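Aggregate trends can hide what the representation actually does to any particular protein. The sequence in question and its structure tokens are set out directly beneath this paragraph.
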Amino acid sequence: MKVWVAAVGKPRDAALAAAIREYEGRAARYWPLEPVEVKEESARSASGAVVMRKEGERLLERLPATARLVLCDPGGEALDSRAFAALLQEQRERAQDVAFVIGGAHGIGDVVRARPHRRLALAPWTLPHELARLVLAEQLYRAGTIVRNEPYHK
């Protein structure tokens, strides 16, 4: 099982970028983790729908077709940390790759929305994509500690 974290754009804020690297590094101790960043599409001469479509195509090109796609979406299923850990452990036991997808500033287009196996809410509100990636990275780390019954999760 491999975990992919696919996001549009690189973190622009240095502090957020450092925090993302820190938690993705911690999470990689528990799950084989592959961060994937795709280029943001310029919105200067394109509509939001075109931007989302192009970014979505880039994301899907970089992910294995066999991975279970989990779209990070505020309208998705809300899981507590233990349920999220159980979901990851179940995928590990099935030897099934999982790809978490975080859209860009305009959101995620229909090309990606048509494909997920699951939609997961990281919060009940919309998060900037950099912050969504940090929240996901921390929860991947926390899930690993829960599965191994380590003291981080309280």
